Backbone:
C-alpha cells in the first residue's frame, strides 16, 4: 500500500548533457569501479577515471577518422562495458547511436543500417563476420570497429576495419598532443543521440529518435525517485539495445557512481548474484517470476509451516527493528543472493503483486515502473517507501500524465521523443498537441498512481460491449505454478459474427508437471496436463469477473517467440490462435 504521500524527491546534481555527466563522474568517483567484468575467468574492473578517459580518447579518435556531428554509428554486440564506452563516445561527438538487436536477422539489420545511413558499426568478435558481410552490401558503412583485439580478417575491406583499442589509442595520442578538436566541440543536447528501433516486422518497425536532453531528463528524474549511490553494484541482465536498460541500467548507475556487471547468461544469474554480490537488479517480470518460483519450490520442500512461522516472526520484528530483521531471519536466502541484494526494479510488463510481496517479506525491496521507448523510457515508477503493487507507478517529477476520454494514457515531458525517424505521419498519429499517446489504457487513482489495463490493441471486445484486457487475464493465469506463460485472445466468432468469450493458449511448466507426477506417483500424459490446467484455470480466474474468465484453452509446449526484453510477440499469434481455436478445451 502507498504510504507517506509527501515522500520528497531525492536531491540530485544536475547535468546538462551526457558528456557533462561522464566528465563529472570520472572526476567525482575517479577510483571507484565503474564496471566489473570477467577476463580469463577472473573478475576485473575498470575505474571511473579510466572509463572517462577511454570515452574521451575514443571520441577524439572518431573525429580524426572522419566521423562527426550529425553522423550515425551502430552498435551490434552482446552486453559488455565497451558498449557503453562506444555509446558515450559517439554522444560526445554530437553523433547519433543506432543500438541494434543482436537477435535480428541479417536482412533486418541491413534495413536499419541503410535507413539510418550508419557510417560506423561497432561490433564484437562474435558478430564480426556478419558485420563485415553487411559492410560489403552497404556503401554508407565506411568503418567496422571490433570491440575485441583481433587480426584483420581476410574479408575485411582495406582501411575500413579497426579494433576499438587501435582507435582509442590513436585518440589518446591526439589528446596528449594537445589537439583540441574534441575538447573544443560544444555538445548540443537537442540533436539526436540515439535512434532505437521498436520490435516488429521491419516494414512496421519505427526508429525512435531521442536526444541527450530526453535521456538526461529521464535519467535525473529516475534518480530523484529511486536512490542509488556509489556503494551499489547493479547486475545487468537485459540487452543494452533496449532503452530501459541503456538509460536505467547503464547511464543512471554511471551518473550516480554505482558499479555495473553484465550477466553473460540469464541461467547463471543466481551464481552471478553470489559472485559479484549485487545490491540492485533491473529486470523484467519473467525473471523475477522465475526466481519467485525457485524460492517457493524450496519452501514446499522444507514445509510451508516453517516459512509461515518465519514470515510471522519477520513481520513482528521488522515493525520494531526495521528491514534488517527480515534480512536476519531469512539470512539463508540472502546468502544465496550474495548477501547484499537490497532492491529489485521490474519493468517492461506488469509484475504480479504476489512476487513483490514475497521479496519484501524476505527484506528485499521490490518496485515496478512503466514506460515506453518513446519516453526515454520511464513515465512512472513505484518508490521503495511509496508504492502500490497493483499500480504501474507514480509519475516522475518532470512528467505529466492525463487520461483521454477513451482511457488512453497520454504523457508530456522533456523525456518524450522528437518523433519517429523519417516517419512524420507515424509521429503525427501519436504526438498531438504536445501530448504523446501511449497506446496503453489505464487510469490515475486518488493518490496519483498510474494503473494500466493493457494495450489498446490487445483489448478483447465482447458482444455484450464489455472490454477484457488480455494482459490482466494472462497475469491471473501465469500465477499458477503449472503455467509457464499464456496468451489470452478473443474466442472464434460465433455464426452471428459476435465474440462472446475469452480463450487462451497455455504453455505448461514442464518442470512443475514433472515434480507433481513424481510427488503423486503419476504418469505424465496429455490428459493429465489438460485436467490439471482446467483446475488451475478455474482456480486462478475465480478472482476475475465472470465475463473475463477463460472458457476454452489450447495447449502448446513450445514457448512463444519473444522480444529481447522477454515480451511475447503478440502480433505473431493473434490470427494463428484463432485458426486453432476450434480445438480448444472447454
Residues:
Amino acid at each position: 500500500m502507498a504510504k507517506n504521500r509527501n515522500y520528497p524527491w531525492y536531491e540530485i546534481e544536475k547535468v546538462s548533457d551526457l558528456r557533462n555527466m561522464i566528465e563529472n563522474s570520472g572526476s567525482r568517483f575517479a577510483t571507484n569501479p565503474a564496471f566489473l567484468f570477467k577476463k580469463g575467468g577472473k573478475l576485473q574492473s575498470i575505474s571511473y577515471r579510466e572509463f572517462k578517459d577511454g570515452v574521451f580518447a575514443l571520441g577524439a579518435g572518431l573525429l580524426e577518422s572522419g566521423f562527426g556531428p550529425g553522423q550515425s554509428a551502430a552498435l551490434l554486440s552482446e552486453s559488455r562495458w565497451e558498449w557503453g564506452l562506444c555509446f558515450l563516445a559517439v554522444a560526445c561527438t554530437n553523433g547519433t547511436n543506432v543500438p541494434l538487436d543482436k537477435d535480428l536477422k541479417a536482412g533486418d539489420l541491413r534495413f536499419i543500417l541503410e535507413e539510418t545511413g550508419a557510417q560506423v558499426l561497432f561490433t564484437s568478435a562474435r558478430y564480426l563476420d556478419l558485420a563485415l558481410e553487411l559492410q560489403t552490401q552497404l556503401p554508407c558503412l565506411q568503418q567496422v570497429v571490433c570491440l575485441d583485439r583481433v587480426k584483420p580478417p581476410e574479408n575485411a575491406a582495406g582501411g575500413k576495419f579497426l579494433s576499438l583499442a587501435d582507435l582509442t589509442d590513436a585518440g589518446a595520442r591526439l589528446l596528449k598532443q594537445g589537439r583540441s578538436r574534441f575538447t573544443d566541440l560544444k555538445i548540443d543536447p537537442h540533436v539526436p543521440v540515439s535512434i532505437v528501433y521498436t520490435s516488429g516486422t521491419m516494414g512496421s518497425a519505427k526508429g525512435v529518435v531521442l536526444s541527450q536532453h530526453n535521456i538526461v531528463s529521464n535519467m535525473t528524474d529516475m534518480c530523484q525517485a529511486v536512490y542509488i549511490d556509489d556503494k551499489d553494484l547493479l547486475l545487468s541482465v537485459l540487452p543494452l539495445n533496449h532503452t530501459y536498460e541503456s538509460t536505467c541500467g547503464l547511464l543512471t548507475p554511471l551518473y550516480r557512481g554505482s558499479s555495473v556487471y553484465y550477466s553473460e547468461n540469464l541461467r547463471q544469474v543466481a551464481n552471478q548474484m553470489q559472485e559479484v554480490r549485487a545490491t540492485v537488479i533491473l529486470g523484467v517480470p519473467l525473471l523475477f517470476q522465475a526466481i519467485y518460483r525457485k524460492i517457493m519450490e524450496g519452501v514446499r520442500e522444507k514445509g510451508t509451516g516453517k516459512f509461515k512461522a518465519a514470515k510471522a516472526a519477520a513481520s513482528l520484528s521488522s515493525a520494531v527493528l526495521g528491514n534488517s530483521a527480515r534480512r536476519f531471519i531469512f539470512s539463508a536466502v540472502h546468502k544465496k543472493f550474495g548477501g547484499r541484494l537490497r532492491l529489485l526494479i521490474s519493468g517492461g510488463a506488469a509484475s504480479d503483486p504476489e512476487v513483490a510481496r514475497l521479496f519484501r517479506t524476505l527484506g528485499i525491496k521490490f518496485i515496478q515502473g512503466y514506460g515506453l521507448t518513446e519516453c526515454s523510457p520511464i513515465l512512472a515508477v513505484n518508490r521503495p517507501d511509496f508504492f502500490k503493487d497493483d499500480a504501474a507507478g507514480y509519475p516522475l517529477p518532470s512528467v505529466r500524465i492525463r487520461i483521454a476520454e477513451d482511457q488512453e494514457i497520454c504523457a508530456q515531458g522533456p523525456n518524450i521523443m522528437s518523433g519517429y525517424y523519417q516517419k512524420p505521419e507515424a509521429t503525427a498519429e501519436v504526438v498531438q498537441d504536445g501530448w504523446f499517446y501511449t497506446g496503453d489504457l489505464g487510469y490515475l487513482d486518488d493518490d496519483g498512481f498510474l494503473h494500466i489495463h493493457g494495450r489498446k490493441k490487445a483489448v478483447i471486445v465482447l458482444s455484450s460491449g464489455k472490454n477484457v484486457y488480455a494482459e490482466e487475464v494472462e497475469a491471473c493465469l501465469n500465477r499458477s505454478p503449472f503455467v509457464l506463460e499464456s496468451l489470452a485472445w478473443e474466442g472464434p466468432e460465433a455464426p452471428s459474427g459476435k465474440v462472446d468469450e475469452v480463450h487462451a493458449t497455455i504453455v505448461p511448466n514442464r518442470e512443475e508437471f514433472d515434480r507433481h507426477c513424481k510427488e503423486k506417483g503419476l504418469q505424465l500424459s496429455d490428459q493429465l496436463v489438460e485436467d490439471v490446467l482446467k483446475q488451475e484455470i478455474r482456480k486462478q480466474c475465480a478472482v476475475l469477473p465472470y465475463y473475463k474468465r477463460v472458457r476454452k484453452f489450447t495447449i502448446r509446449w513450445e514457448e512463444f517467440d519473444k522480444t529481447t526484453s522477454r515480451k511475447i510477440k503478440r502480433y505473431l499469434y493473434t490470427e494463428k490462435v484463432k485458426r486453432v481455436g476450434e480445438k480448444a478445451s472447454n
User: Anything to note?
Assistant: The radius of gyration is 25 Å. DSSP finds 20 helices and 27 strands in the chain.
